[in-house]
Amino acid sequence: MIVKEKVDFQDCNQALTFLKSKVTEEIDIRLYLEVNEFAIEELLREISFKFQSNIKKMAIVCNNESIESIRKITNKFYDSEVKFFEIQENTKAKKWIQLKA
């Protein structure tokens, strides 16, 4: 999932609908989020409430200035393994999350 603009409620609902269509209770989610503009708080909160038990790993790719703000959210809402990467490290992030680069 690549977020290019400010995320609004409708965007969150579309992302959550997509995840719901792919998730069963026994599946582990490996989530790759690439954030080009810091506006991801609402989506992260919603994902955590609905899929927290399914999320195994999360790679968050964003600019360096956003990392600490997003880290506060993930530390608060997620028990899963979360790792941060800068935009230029997106290939490394995809490999870490075990997605094709």
Automatic annotation (TrEMBL):
Gene3D superfamilies: SpoIIaa-like domains. It holds the Pfam family SpoIIAA-like. InterPro entries: SpoIIAA-like (IPR021866), SpoIIAA-like_sf (IPR038396), STAS_dom_sf (IPR036513). Signal peptide: none annotated. This is DUF4180 domain-containing protein.
